[in-house]
Each structure stands twice: as C-alpha cells, then as structure tokens.
Amino acid sequence: IVSIVASAPAPRSVRRVRPGRAAAPRGERVAMSAASSAAPAGAGDTGETAAIVNVVKAIFGAGGFALPWAFAQGGTVLVTACLLSSYWFAIKALEMLVQSQETLIAAGKATQAEVQTYAGLTQKAIGPAGDVICRVLNVITCFGITVGYMIFVADTCISMLPAAQAATYTTAKMLTYNLPVWLFMAWQRSIAGVNLISLFGTTTVALSMIWVMISALRNPLQLAAIPLADVSQFSGFFGTVAFLFFIHFTLFSVQEGMPEKKYFLSAANKAFLISMAISLVFGLVGAVGYGRGVSSVVVTMLTGVAGLVVKGLLALNLWSTFPLMARSSLLICENVVSPGKEAALPVSLAVRTGFVCLAAYLACNVPNFGAVLGLVGGVCCCAMSVFMPPIILYKSKELCGTPAAGGEKGMIGFVALTGFVCMILSVVL
After folding, report:
1. CB atoms closer than 10 angstroms to residue 184
2. Which of 86, 108, 203, 353, by CA, is between 20 and 30 Å from 59?
C-alpha cells in the first residue's frame, strides 16, 4: 500500500530547498530520529517512500491502542469527523512550518542547518523566547508521555496475571514493582541500537493492532451501543487523535533524511492519509467489537496465549523505546542543572531519577491511560503542532520584511485560533 501511494507525483507548489547539515544540539537530532533511522533512502532515491514509512511509524505507538476507547466515548460520527479535521489541520500546519523554513532561508536569515529542527526554527523565527517555549513544551510533552507509558505498562502487566491474582493489584501497586525497570532505562545515556529498537517497536505495534481487530471481530458486534456523537467526551477522544497526528516536532528528522526535500510534504500527506485510514478501521472495529466498556488500553482485553504474548511484547516495546522518547527532555533538564556543559554522571542520574519518580507519582494518581492522552495530546501536542506553526510562519514573514496579508493572514489566524480553542476545550470538557 505504501509503495503504491508513494508512486503518485509530488505537488509542484513545494519549492526545493538546498540541503545543509550541521551538528544539532546534544541529543536533539538523535532523540527525534528514532522513527526515521530504520528506513533509509537508497542511492538515487528521492526518499519519499522511506519518508512515508517513517512518518507512519512515528504516528502509531502506544497511543493508537486508545482509539477504540476514543470511538466508544466520542461516538462513531464525531470521532470520524475529528480524524478528518485533524488530518487537514496537521497537513496545513506542516505546510506552514516548511514555508517558514523556506522564507527564512530565502531571505538569508537562517541556513538550512539552523532551521532543520523544530527548536532551531522556533528560535530563528521568534527569538530566545521561542527557544524557551519550545524547550518547556518539549519537557512537558515527554513527561506526560512518560506518565502514559507507565500506566499503559502497569495495566498491561496486571491483565497478564491470573484473574484471582490480578484482582489484588491496582495500577499504583503494579507501577511500584515496575519502577526499577523505568529507572534503569532512564539511566541509559547511550542510545546505541536505535535501528533495532525501532524495528522491534514497529513490528510489535503492527502485530498487536492486527490481533486486537481479530479478537474484537470474534465478539458479537455492538454498533447500537456506540453513540453517534458525545461532545462531553471531547477531551478523551480529541486528545487521543491529537496524540497520534500532532507530532510535527518529530518530523524534522524525516525531512532531513530525504535526498530530495521537495517531496517531504507529499510524503507526509500520503502518510497522514494512510494513518487516518488505519486509525478509522482500527478504532471502529475495536469499539464495535468490545462495546462501550472497552478499556482505554484495549490490549488488556485480549485473552489466551496469543493475547499474553502481544501484551508482553508491547510492554517490552515501551520499556525499550522509553529512553529514545524521553532523551531530549532529559537532556534539557540536565542542561538546566549544568548549563553550557555535559552533566556529570551523578548529576545526570539524579535528574533522571527525579524525572521518573515524579512521573510515577502522577501515574499512580491518574484515573486511566485515556485521561493522560487527553491532556498531553489535547494541550501539549496541539500547542506544538497546531497553535505554534502559524505563529512561527507569521513571525518568520514579519522578520523577513514580507508580512502576511489577505487570505494568508486569515488562514494563519484561523489555524492558530482553532488550536487555541481545542487546547482550552481539552481542559474544560
């Protein structure tokens, strides 16, 4: 499917940008390139097919397993509409980020290397304040994802126990037993083996999603039990969708790895379309198969030996990918304690221990995995991927002496306002 879709021509409106490379801030490029490292472009290739695969891989992870719960909560029609609109806003925001890069480079305000990361682009467009905003949002987002990971793994481990024994465990109790593993993984300062970890994670998620759908279809279908629309559940279903699709800050490494960067938007567009179709099928099948009471961690509802294997692989996947996901935020925290230099080993371990322990404390007091996705996806991911891109474009054009006007200015305001409203609704609803 990916190969067929990738063969379509790229839009001609995207101008080619001359590639440039420079060393990124410590850990930044590596932390955001885990998804792109396992599918490099071959010699003479535009890199579009590899980019499509990498973007799809970046979208799907643990958050995807909350899609059936999102459909069961928000309703089949409303969540489908949310997926469609999120796709449009995701592509529009990504276009704005690429246009910001091109504007700054064309005006001589930045080099390709300087705007090749989300943080670098934000700093060049907005200034030092943009860099601070980017770093704060990065830490908050990764911290929230860590809390979600912990709840996901704890609930999954409980579901692997015999029924009588599982009844004696709470999420908090299981998390305390898992805490040494999280600490050990956080203490890993080297991320050797990125390719292998990425491949393992992709395979695990794909097999798990297939098995969830097979298991769901074995149950009596409960379409009538699922509402068409329930706006009161906005935070849950929108946050889940946003958690998947609003990942723009991770896509710069995919763009950087493409030999022909003019195909980046075309590749991203196709990847988002494929991901939207997969999300729609997986979410609807899981919701209809398991009904309104489907768990926010749908894999916990799997039974049998196959279900046990799937759960175990997913838990291992999250543990192994945690150092990659959290690396950038951990380095930012270390830099606050040891500004301008690499943190000494004792300082680094202390910072990482505090990060994990605080996340574990919050995970013990959060009702479920879906609630975490609602806040992280609906607020943090939405801020970085919908609210910030139009502001970055507006400031870039203003900096280069070509301020936005007319329809372009209206579109910038519309996207920014929509992102802001969605962030507010994710908190109040």
Report:
1. 12
2. 353
3-state helix, strand, coil in the chain (%, to 5): 75, 0, 25
Distance from CA of residue 254 to its chain's centroid? Answer: 14
**How far separated are the first and last CA of the chain, in Å rounded?**
38
Tokens 């609602």, located at residue: 374
Q: For residues 255-267, b (16+ Cβ closer than 10 Å) or e, as one string?
A: bbbbbbbbbbbbb
Tell me the torsion sign for CA atoms 87, 247, 272, 217. Answer: negative
Residue 13 pLDDT exceeds 60: no
Rounded to 10 deg, the angle between the 48-59 and 264-290 helix axes is: 40
Q: Are 249 and 387 in contact (CB under 8 A)?
A: no
Which residues neighbour 79 within 8 Å (Cβ) at sequence distance 6 or greater?
A: 70, 71, 237, 241, 283
CA distance 102 to 94: 13
pLDDT tens per residue across span 197-218: 666 777 888 889 999 999 999 9
Q: How far apart are CA 338 and CA 331, in angstroms?
A: 10
**CA angle in degrees (0–180, nearest 5) for 419-61-369:** 70
Three-state secondary structure of 331-388: HHHHHHHCCCCCCCHHHHHHHHHHHHHHHHHHHCCCCCHHHHHHHHHHHHHHHHHHHH
Residue 1 pLDDT > 50: no
Count Cβ atoms below 10 Å from residue 38 Cβ, excluding itself.
19
pLDDT digits (tens, 9 = 90+) for 128-171: 988 898 889 889 988 988 998 999 999 999 999 999 999 999 99
Closest CA to 396 of 140, 114, 141: 114
Eight-state DSSP code of residue 338? S
